[in-house]
Amino acid sequence: MRSAERSVWSEGRDRVAASDPGLLRLAAGLRTVLSIALSLAVLAALDAGVTHLVAGAIAAMVATFAVREKQRAPQAVTLALGLPVALASVSLSALLNSRVLAGDAFFVVLIFCAVYGRRFGDRGTALGLIGFQTYFASLFVGVTPAGLPGFLGTVAIAFACAALARFALVPQTPTGILLRLREAFRARLAQLLEAQADLLDAGPDDVDRVLQQVREGTARLHETAMMIQGRLEEGTPDEAVARLVQRRIADAEIAAERLGLLLLTARSARRADTLTLHLPGAQLPERGRLPVRDEASDALRRDLAALALLVRRPVAAASGTGLAQVRNRLLGYRDDEHLPSASPAVQDVFRGIGEAARAVLGLRIALDGPQDDADDSPATARSREELDAEDAAIGVAEETEEPSEPETGLRRPTTRAAVQVAVGSLLAIVGGEFLSSQRWYWAVLTCWIVFINTASTGEILVKGYRRLVGTVLGVVAGIVLAGLVGHHTWTAFAVVLLCVFAMFYTAPLSYTLMSFFVTAALGVLYTLLHTYSLSVLVLRVEETALGAACGVVAAALVLPVHTDRRTNDLLTTVLDRLTEVTSAAMDQLSGGPPVDLLERARDLDQALADLRAATQPLTHPVTPLRTRRETARYVVALLETCAYHARSLAATAELLPTHPSIAADPGLRGAGERILRNIGAIATHVGDERSAEPVRTGPSIASLLNPGVPSTPRYGRVTDRVLRHLQRLDEAVVGLARPLDVPVAAPRG
């Protein structure tokens, strides 16, 4: 019974960890709710009025979500600096309340400074947010000079409660966050392996659905790997440990993705295209074969389940002869003599399971220390020796990057955004005054928000659309909630706290949902302030639409950055990063000096993530340009395929010169020249459409390496695996030429 309870608890914990990596969203929601609740409790004990309660709740929320540094000491400094900024903002709002022109002019200047402050990093961004939001809160509750001292005290109490919630009630350290992110990676890896196992039994009618689950699982695993890499520096004791964890995370991710491709190949009538894992809607050739039940396939199902079990099982429970035998069997598949009798494609899957088991073993050693080796088989002992040799060589790679020349003047993104949002806010103030002389600030708030984390006109348009949809739906919910709570103060605040938690928990997932919960909470707050009416909520929608429109107009007319230009710039960056990773990996694989390949691969992944975000206006369901939408999706999918093969090349090159069974091959030095030349041709064309430099096709990469010798690659030879990745990378790069309208030249001679 207890074992069943532990199993249910463990499975539930894994699901939570996988759905919210690092529990970052849960912690953000709890911390904000607790800071607000503490503020309300203290203010209620001081017999503060409802207006002060609302002001305190808003100030506590702002003081909590504005601080974004990862280390606790910088967080404390930012919070301490934020208090005088908030007090000054509230004071100026009260003093300028009766001076319309002066107040509006100062608000525009404040908005410009708040956005411009982003150039100074997380602290500048936080102080700008605090200054703007507390000024807005003062307008919302109607702070006057006569009531200013009381509200200053309220803000101070709110900041103190926010500090208590952050540092005492819901503390987060970089080490703790990294530990939870590692658990999330483990849970998502197990979920991906289980989804891959479902491919074996999925019939023709179900294979597309299961393939979509595999595709989503692969993307979520990569997302978690990126989150871990972004926190290694703060969450690990030294650089060597950080590089070790980074390498093992990359190995596990690549091994899992490779295993999925091998399973797809085993199901299809021909080798599965890597693009199948990256392009939404892509299907297997001929929708895959029917599931087969034979001795080999049964063993495959058993071993995939065993691999997922090894991933899920906690280290403390991972001892025992039974588990050691399972681990030994899976690692034995790395040797051809241990493979079962089956077709070559199915045998490749068993080899992939062996490589994945090795990656899982390395991940466990890196994260949890040495494991019990009493029952090791020769294959397992060899895997441990390989991992030990790799670990011992960490830290030998050094490189110095030349700093890029920063943009200056109005070309600087923060300066341009500050000018745009100031102009948009000025338009929103003027238009908002026509709609309502009392609540014009809602238009300004929307204009401000649509510029946060956006960099092009298209992104601002999509964000404004999502905010408007969420606001309309939130107005409906606000009407219902206001009717239910009436003027019951503490019931209303309880509903507000629930909405605030939901707002922060869903913010990274859906901006529309976040806007919905914000507007629903506002409906309840209006009830507490005795200003609720249907007309007020309708006015909220009108002001939101106006603010979004002003933001779009300002972005389109003032120092505009069009979506095409931004995506082209980011596409060029991705191609440059792809060139760097591929060139450095090939140089190292052919005997060149070691460099930090995994860091370069991470830069490639980050550049690709930026491009994916920038193409959202092109791929959004409401876009009328369907052909353009499909083209953008196809290009991003091809680039994800390129990034996968580049990561695999980098991970293989990182094994040199420490891996006992892998040696550099000087013949590889020229194998990637055509790929690099083609990437350069595409990048040149993206930067200048008049460029006539073509992408060149030709014979296979293997035939270039060994002219006149038929290519018979075997999975176990590192050179053949490198050639396979190079061949797929070559095909994907040539595939980029068609959607980007780059000319393709036939082979010479």
Automatic annotation (TrEMBL):
The keyword Repeat does not apply. It comes from Streptomyces galbus. Keywords: Cell membrane, Membrane, Transmembrane, Transmembrane helix. It holds the Pfam family FUSC_2. The keyword Disulfide bond does not apply. It is a multi-pass membrane protein. Belongs to the YccS/YhfK family. This is FUSC family protein. It is found in: Cell membrane.
